[in-house]
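Figure 2 data, in text form.
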Amino acid sequence: VENILPVEELTQNEEQKCPAKTRKEMLEERLLYLLLIAPEANKLIKEEYSPYFSSQLLNILGKFKKYFEYEEKLKNFKTELPIFQKSLSEEENGILNYLWLKTETEEESAEIDFEDEVAFCLKEIQGMEVKKKLDLISQEIKKAENDKDSKKLQSLINEFDKLSKKLNITI
């Protein structure tokens, strides 16, 4: 009886254990959620997006695509999923189990346009990563200006322009 924490303290401890997720983490989680509802949607996630994903998502997606590359396994997704999960780490399994439970408890899946939703998640993740890269390059540009390094400055400006165009395409 002495070891029981007051509700306020318990809530604070739980919040400390589960830090708030970033927008990117939520979008990546949404992408996995969509794959669990419509596993065939994995064909919409092209290799060109891989530089924008976290290593964890990249790992899960890579294993997912490889395991479910055959139509037969996709048709039997619910029975194949536990077998697939044996190839995942404990942490990755925790993520998939959480999302699988979410798919079973939410009614949303019938209303989703999977192609649009996957495209939205991919575009958002890509846009966020390109913006982050642009921020880094702009800092490097300022440093090159301060160092009066015109050769590096021109190279960085060209890279910035190229990425800016990519960002305009994704938006």
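Caption note: The chain has eight helices and no strands.
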